[in-house]
């Protein structure tokens, strides 16, 4: 299945011409859904920390007692650090 028509354009890249910290997330996520793990990592290395953070955030919002707030904050900081490292080497 081709997900290209459903992807949102990056407004930051359109306005500045530079990649943002999240550029490549959508493509990597769809590659991950297709089962292409190495392709997803190549496209956007922080895909795994991003997905883990989004899942824990979703669970934390709907069930306020299962995942502590400190875990969500830690995963958010970890994700930002991995994104910055990935952006630096890009």
Total count of helical runs of at least 4 residues: 5
Structural class: mainly alpha
The proportion of residues in beta strands is under 5%
Distance between the termini: 28 Å
Considering DSSP H and I runs of 4 or more, what fraction of the residues is helical?
Answer: 55-70%
What average pLDDT do the residues reach?
89
Quaternary: single chain
The unreliable regions are: none
Radius of gyration: 14 Å
Shape: globular
Order of helices and strands: HHHHH
**Largest sheet entry:** none
Tell how many strands the DSSP assignment holds: 0
Based on the model shown, name its key terms.
90 residues; mainly alpha; 5 helices
Notes on the protein architecture:
- The chain is an all-alpha fold.
- 67% of the residues lie in helices and 0% in strands.
- α2 (25-34) packs antiparallel against α3 and α4 (47-62) packs antiparallel against α5.
- It starts with 10 loop residues before the first helix and ends with a helix.
SSE blueprint and pairings:
Blueprint: H1 11-16, H2 25-34, H3 37-43, H4 47-62, H5 69-89
In brief, what are we looking at here?
The chain is 67% helix and 0% strand. The chain is mostly helical.
């Amino acid at each position: 299945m081709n997900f290209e028509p459903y992807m949102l354009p990056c407004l930051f890249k359109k306005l500045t011409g530079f990649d943002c910290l999240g550029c490549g997330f959508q493509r990597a996520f769809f590659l991950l859904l297709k089962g292409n793990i190495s392709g997803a990592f190549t496209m956007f290395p922080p895909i795994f920390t991003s997905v883990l953070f989004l899942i824990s955030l979703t669970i934390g919002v709907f069930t306020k007692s299962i995942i502590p707030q400190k875990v969500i904050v830690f995963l958010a900081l970890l994700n930002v650090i991995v994104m910055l490292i990935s952006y630096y080497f890009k």
